TrEMBL record:
Biological classification of the source: Bacteria, Pseudomonadati, Myxococcota, Polyangia, Polyangiales
UniProt domain STAS: residue ranges: 293-404
Protein name as catalogued: PAS domain-containing protein
InterPro entries found in the cross-reference section: Bact_StressResp_Reg, PAS, PAS-assoc_C, PAS-like_dom_sf, PAS_4, STAS_dom, STAS_dom_sf
Organism: Polyangium sorediatum
Pfam families: PAS_4, STAS
Keywords: Phosphoprotein
Annotated ranges, domain PAC: 101-157, 224-276
Gene3D superfamilies membership: PAS domain, STAS domain
Domain PAS: residue ranges: 158-225
Listed SMART domains: PAS
Length: 420
């Protein structure tokens, strides 16, 4: 009996010790849980653990707030379907099923409604196994990326508006880095490259920067001066005026080039056509002036007169000789009266022209009469040693006309006249 009582007493003591140890362990676990929960509650990301039936076993304060609850106790033990609209819950559950099926973590973007509207989260979901390696739970960490996504949307909208504005321009617009790689292109530039604006991005050595030497020069010029560089470029019989502007980075140094190319083909062709027309007009005026300045005046059936007025250059000299010879030949003239009263500048060149004209007319059988020879002209002829053999010289055009009208050798007492 005594032994039995001792055994019972000893077992009671052992049980007390065991209960005390269990209580201590439970206290330790609760303390660890509180520490862990405190840590989780101070993490802004949504943290949760749920079983394969989508019932929460652990969560943090951020997750409770997201679900519109004040405390995690309102979440733990409840199914996710209680907190979200069917379409949202279905999408989240599909990701949970994928994790369980693959047995590995996935990253997905998930959205859910809040008082501030739809919030977007980047979720990392992963499997949690028991001691035997069997997947029992799904863990998740979700970070709010709503602001980031909205900023991306605003940026995308801004870029779309900017692209639309750039595409409305008929000029070639490119944004390239300093290696010549396209960062952005408008429709006009992409069309010149034979692609879409999106396809142009990433290309390098494209028109009008397709010449490496020119691109290197431009980059160096922009880096050195920090000012726009301008040049001309041509492609497919089209001409472009190109300006490359420096685009600076945060440190103030050029980081990219904004390239504007304007098609000036029509303007250049119009300018060329205008120049051609101007040249035609000038040539027509020149010919008209020559005709006016070297008129061939019929006196009789056998006599013509050519009064020379103004300066005599090489072109006009040739025209004078040609006009005289053509008139002599066409009219069968026997006498040509050349009046030099109105010649402004007299030099050896003019003297040579007169001698050449007289000799040419003589070869056609015509007699040349020169009138209005002033002292300066006479001096130039003497200095030249001109041979005016067979040329009649008279004082005035009136004398020459009288000589021609009365007939060869029948002039009435000219004031001054010699037969050389």
């Amino acid at each position: 009996m005594t032994n039995e009582m001792e055994i019972v007493e000893r077992m009671g003591l052992e049980n007390d010790t065991l209960r005390k140890r269990v209580a201590e362990l439970e206290q330790t676990v609760r303390q660890r849980d509180r520490v862990l929960q405190t840590i989780l509650d101070h993490i802004p990301a949504l943290i949760f653990v749920m079983d394969l039936e989508d019932t929460y076993s652990h969560t943090n304060h951020s997750c409770a707030t997201f679900m519109g609850r004040k405390d995690v106790s309102e979440i733990v033990g409840h199914n996710a379907s209680e907190f979200f609209p069917p379409e949202v819950f279905a999408a989240w559950r599909e990701n949970n099923r994928m994790v369980a099926a693959k047995g590995e973590a996935i990253v997905a973007e998930e959205s859910g409604p809040t008082e501030d509207g739809i919030q977007v989260y980047r979720s990392i979901k992963f499997p949690i196994r028991d001691s035997e390696g069997i997947i029992r739970w799904i863990g998740g960490i979700a970070t709010n990326v709503t602001a980031e996504r909205r900023a991306e949307e605003r940026l995308g909208e801004s870029q779309a508006r900017a692209q639309a504005m750039l595409d409305a321009s008929t000029d070639l617009l490119l944004l390239v880095d300093l290696e010549g790689v396209v960062v952005m292109a408008n429709q006009a530039a992409a069309g010149r490259l034979g692609c879409s604006p999106a396809e142009a991005v990433g290309r390098r050595d494209v028109f009008p920067l397709d010449e490496p030497d020119r691109r290197a020069f431009l980059v160096e010029e922009v880096r050195r001066t920090g000012t726009p560089a301008r040049f001309d470029a041509a492609r497919d019989e089209r001409w472009f005026e190109v300006t490359a502007y420096p685009v600076r980075s945060g440190d103030g140094l050029p980081a990219r080039l904004a390239v504007f190319g304007r098609d000036v083909t029509d303007q250049r062709r119009a300018a060329q056509e205008q120049r051609r027309l101007q040249e035609q007009v000038i040539e027509a005026q020149r010919l008209a002036i020559q005709e006016i300045g070297t008129p061939l005046v019929p006196l009789t059936d056998e006599a013509v007169a050519i009064p020379l007025i103004g300066a005599i250059d090489e072109v006009r000299a040739a025209h004078f000789v040609e006009t005289m010879l053509r008139g002599v030949d066409a009219r069968g003239a026997q006498i040509v009266v050349v009046d030099v009263t109105g010649v402004s500048n007299v030099d050896t060149h003019v003297a040579e022209v007169l001698v050449r004209a007289a000799r040419a007319a003589k070869l056609l059988g015509a007699e040349v009469i020169m009138t209005g020879i002033r002292p300066a002209v006479a001096q130039a002829l003497v200095d030249l040693g001109a041979d005016l053999g067979g040329v009649v010289t008279l004082a005035s055009l009136q004398d020459g006309i009288a000589y021609a009208v009365r007939g060869k050798g029948r002039a009435s007492s000219p004031r001054r006249g010699v037969r050389a």
